[in-house]
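Researcher: I'm preparing a figure for a lab meeting and need a structural model of a single chain. I don't have an experimental structure, so a prediction will have to do for now. The sequence is pasted below. Please return the structure as tokens so I can convert it later.
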Amino acid sequence: MQSCWIGIDIGGTGIKGALVNEQGQMIERMELPTQAEQGAEFILGRVLYIANELKSIVYDSVKQRFISVHGIGIGSAGRIDRESGIVIDATDNLPGWKGMRLAELVTASTGLPSWIVNDAHAAAAGEDWIGASSQVQSSIMLTIGTGVGGALVHYGEVISGQYGGAGELGHMILHPGGLPCNCGKKGCVEQYISGTALHRRADEYVPGWNAYTLMREAKQGTAEALFILDGWINDLANTIINMDQIFDPQAIVIGGGVIVTRGTWWELLLQRIQELGGRPVLLMPAQLGNHAGMVGAARIAMLNTQL
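Model: Understood. Here is the structure written out token by token.
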């Protein structure tokens, strides 16, 4: 009998799920579009559908072994109370999601114990288990996509904080009194280094450009693109220096959609950190890509299960 756990990653555009064994291998995967505009009950229905479909798998045809599913881990956008499994706060990307008693509802539907964490925390758990940071004891995960997320990992444990908000790196103040953020503050990191911010920077400087155009032109050495990219790199470098100063990790893992373009800016970032006086820090690109959240959520369920 092969022990497995279900890992589910809830994002603004897609809900992904996987059946994961004790070695971190995905036995089966499935994905549905979130269709968040349909509201919280619709999103919940999709989560429950994926959870029950994966729970129904009883045989691994590759290893030719029967499967026993022991629990469910879920990574969700928003601030999560890990003790109760309730979504404390959520952005407009998941309308009506705030207050959702996710763990209770998933357990009621599937009959399996469930654990809920922030999606960046789940991704960090995945990278810590079998990904980029698996060989270090303490790390920071910085995810740069539409927004900016983060997580702190210390000796295998993702630090959640009192209200599930530890590692909210995107909402540290980078430029006091700067650009307004949807969190209510001004000058947050997210407004300067996210993929959305990169798109805005490009369009403001060269109307019609987006983040993809910017990276393509920068790779070709276009002066305007290199100028825009330099400002983004400067803000990212300062963010990393601040993170390093606070947490003193062995490594900082950078993931999210922007990492696929790292060939254009990675060495420039390392150089800028040095120029700004930051200490040498081990920067690593995330390895698990879109699978990190599923694998990490399953890992969190595994660590909380008594077999």
